[in-house]
Amino acid sequence: MRPPLKTALILIPVALVLGFVASSWLHQAQSPQPKTDNALLSTGMTIDASLTGLLDEQGRPVDDARFADRYRLVAFGFTSCPDVCPTMLLGVKQALEQLGTEARNIVPIFVSVDPERDTPERVAAYTASFDKRIVGLTGSSPALANVAKSYKVQYSKRPMGSDPAAYTVDHTALIFLIDPQQRIRALVPTSEGAQGVAQEIVQAYRALRQISASRPWARATPAGAQVGAAYVELLNTGTQQDRLLSLESPLADRVEVHETGMKDGMMTMRHVAGLILPPNKPVQLAPGGTHIMLMNLKQPLVAGQSFPLTLKFQHAPAITVTVTVAQTRAVAAPEPARS
What we know:
This protein is an alpha+beta fold. The protein folds into two domains: 34-208, Glutaredoxin; 211-326, PCu(A)C copper chaperone (Immunoglobulin-like), CATH 2.60.40. 23% of the residues lie in helices and 33% in strands. The strands form three sheets. Strands 8, 9, 10, 11, 12, 13, 14, 15, 16 and 17 form a ten-stranded mixed β-sheet that branches. It has a five-stranded mixed β-sheet with strand order 3-2-1-6-7. A two-stranded antiparallel ribbon has the order 4-5. The longest helix has 26 residues, at 5-30. The model is unreliable at 5-39 and 330-339 (pLDDT under 50).
């Protein structure tokens, strides 16, 4: 029995819509989807992070020495990307702004996965529109494939119609935080928007660049004393050597690190500029050795009282510790006040 003509006319457009939906779903299912194999990538893993073979903003071959001894924030994308890439680069820009001077040891890098359209000039203009500190790289298809393989990044061209020039590029949407030893320190997703990207980057980087201070204490001084001494144990939890560059306290006009030693039977003391803090090795500022000198005291150091002391480093964020004043006699340092 044939369906009435009116019913048939209704069914035709419904069938067409269903057919279009099915065809669209099938196209997406068959198209390669960009991803990063989580089984192959993990934080702490060492990879070949070389960018050799690519071209910089001036069209010159990339020299990895340009990025030596610095952290890298590496993102893959393309300049015609309408959504994900702007989110990534806005997040990077916000992270650099939030880190302030801490960001001087970071190189943000954007690698184009669209070598056909993204010339060095085009990539340079694109990255500069977000932040001039972002290094834009491109290159030939073989060079890009080699770099992407090292980072376990996938990308694929997706046609947008019959015109060969009309296409988009699916790609891995992660930002890699790589340390100077070429270890992955963080894999930052873009799913939480630019603010989420910035927050993840800042937290991950600061976690790697921390100096902890334990048991800060000072000896009490007699009335009228112009100089005092303070002590603390410092631990660099980062992956790179750092330096203690300066100290300050409202109780003294000048605060320095000094080292006590013996020369020709005489005790000497010298100023230590840029005290080295190796990674994961405690550095003791203790009586009879390297210690902190508080000069031109504005008031005596009185037992039982405390005062703030700020320490500034070459790479890690500055920290302020509370120093407890102990009796002049030899005593055990007060129990820890970690910062």
